[in-house]
Amino acid sequence: MKMCCQNFKELMLNAGEKGFSAVPLHENDFLFFLLQYRSENVKVKEGIIKIADIGIKYCPFCGTELAEIISNNQAYVAHLAKKNRSLIH
Hints:
Layout: H1 6-13, E1 19-27, E2 30-38, E3 51-56, H2 66-72, H3 74-83
Antiparallel strand pairs: 1-2, 2-3
């Protein structure tokens, strides 16, 4: 897996955890990333849980175009998109 920077790799690995994460999404034969914020870990099922996400085109840390990351790691990003589909509302 070749990422643009260590910070973005950690952001991807944080999917489903409290705070910010980068979650890949596969829709209409198109792979892209969402920047997601969660007020609680995905395992928390009670109380008020805030989740917000927005599509991103560039790495928020180094500015690399994420299409390049997807192109270099297409199978892995598609796997993560399938694995993390339940995180998207």
